[in-house]
Amino acid sequence: MPLLQARGNLIPYDGQLYHWPRFYPQEQADSYFQRLYQNLTWQQENLFIYGRWLPVPRLMAWYGEPAAHYRYSGVDHPPLPWTPELQTLRLDMQSVCGQSFNSVLANLYRDGRDSMGCHADDEKELGPNPVIASLSFGETRLLRFRHPQSSRRLDIELMHGDLLIMAGELQQHWRHELPKTRRPKQPRINLTFRNIID
Ligand SMILES: O=C(O)CCC(=O)C(=O)O
Ligand SMILES: [Fe+2]
To answer: Where is the Fe2OG dioxygenase domain positioned along the sequence (predicted)?
Structure first.
């Protein structure tokens, strides 16, 4: 990932994090946002917590190669077939990262009440030190990284067209979340390109 490494690792230790603001310029990012918003099959997932079903606070969709099943919200998800725009984005991510991605998780945060809880993308099917390429479209939202061992925190504002790459041991040592906010927020789409290993 020479192009990315030249931008500098944002994380102080135990992982790699590269941010490429405005990877897609405004007009291109606008067009991707519209197409993804309209064309992806957005689903409301539910989670069984403390004895009852609760709606996951965002909409989600899973796309990829037929074999790339992924388990989230306690359920196995077979992938939907690539849409043309996801294929194009995937090719861009593969050339920047110098590796292939066989799947993508799409998240739609409808407003400031939608969020993602603190987690690491450390599932077995991603392998030990996964490279994950994350694209953001639409509203600016804060992504917060936490290193529980040292209590260190790192906040990154992700904007329309931004690319963020997580790599190295990041998922073993750091967790991340997209907090809710009281500020009025327009919708935001995030795509995380992943490589699922059998
Ligand atoms: O929306 C984001 O920027 C974070 C998404 C994320 O962490 C995930 O899909 O695992
Ligand atoms: Fe994540």
So the answer is: 100-197
